[in-house]
Design a protein that fits this description.
This protein has a two-stranded antiparallel sheet with strand order 1-2. The protein has 14 helices and 2 strands; from the N terminus they run ββαααααααααααααα. The radius of gyration is 26 Å and the shape is globular. With 301 residues, the protein is mostly helical. The chain is 64% helix and 3% strand.
Length: 301
């Protein structure tokens, strides 16, 4: 009598066999991360896949900044208004007017203080973002570039509130901007790009050397006075030095910001071109340096 043909042993629950290979139906699809080409400084697809984390980090930064504060977001209004009042009083006592005629000095100062405040806060917050989030970096994989980029969200909210002061000042003083206001989005984009260009490099440098924070603080203090924040380039800088002065990218950006909002201001063609070119060079350099430390930043912080 022939031997009974025994059925193959039943596979455990959740295990199937295909082409002689057992596979676990419940196992998640594996994702393999390979090294990016040397020329690819930013992986746009990878950043897009983690867009929800980007928004979460940005909203968390905004909530933490104003949590348990008495005035909350009103601090965005107090800083430029207080600085404007101080410098208006100072220059009034000195008998100097560091601005062109035709527009109240308060508006000239506000149109310099608002973009400078946005630039400096982006540099400060982005520069310290990796160290501030060191626990998150050591626990899970995600593009480290998201952390400094997310700081832009809260800073743009602050910028929107501060810009409201400038628009209110235009209405109060009866100054009406011309069609130049159409260039305002470009001016804002340049301010953010310049802040990120410096902030990304500082973030990578600060992850390796903690004293980079002190260097940035000193540089921002010096930059406030060597940039046309509380004065106009054409009124205080001699013509023979204006070409050299334009090598400061913030000079061209702030002059362009004023051109967008204030009437009868000359278009800063040279300063704007140099500011754009220098910002792009610094941004590419910072991205390259950030990428070079990205894979080891968890061990360095």
């Amino acid at each position: 009598m022939p031997d009974a043909i025994s059925a193959p042993p039943a596979e455990p629950h959740g295990i199937t066999q295909k082409n002689g290979v057992r596979a676990d139906e419940s196992s998640a699809e594996l994702t393999y991360h390979t090294a990016r080409p040397w020329w690819q400084l930013v992986d746009i697809a990878e950043l897009w896949d983690h867009r929800e984390l980007f928004w979460m980090l940005g909203l968390r930064d905004l909530q933490v900044r104003y949590r348990q504060t008495f005035l909350g977001i009103a601090w965005c209004l107090l800083q430029p208004l207080t600085s404007m009042a101080i410098f208006a009083t100072l220059f009034g006592l000195l008998g100097r007017r560091p601005a062109e005629d035709g527009v109240p000095y308060g508006l000239v100062a506000l149109c310099g203080l608002v973009p400078w405040q946005t630039f400096s806060t982006i540099v400060s917050h982005a520069g310290g973002s990796l160290v501030a989030n060191h626990q998150l970096i050591g626990k899970v994989f995600f593009p480290r570039l998201l952390i400094p980029l997310a700081t832009v969200i809260s800073n743009l909210v602050d910028f929107g509130v501060s810009l409201g002061i400038v628009l209110a000042g235009l209405l109060i003083w009866g100054v009406w901007p011309s069609w130049h206001i159409l260039g305002l989005p470009l001016a804002v984009g340049l301010v953010v790009a310049a802040g990120l260009a410096v902030g990304l490099g500082v973030a990578a440098l600060n992850a390796m050397y903690r004293d980079a924070t002190f260097l940035v603080s000193f540089a921002l203090q010096a930059g406030f006075f060597v940039s046309p924040v509380v004065y106009e380039t054409t009124s205080l800088i001699p013509p023979r030095w204006q070409a050299l002065y334009a090598l400061n990218p913030l000079a061209g950006i702030i002059d362009f910001f004023r051109w967008c909002l204030l009437p009868e201001r000359p278009f800063p063609a040279t300063g704007l071109a140099l500011a754009t070119a220098i910002t792009i060079v610094v941004l590419v350099t910072s991205l390259a340096y950030f990428r070079s430390i990205e894979s080891t930043v968890a061990d360095s912080i």
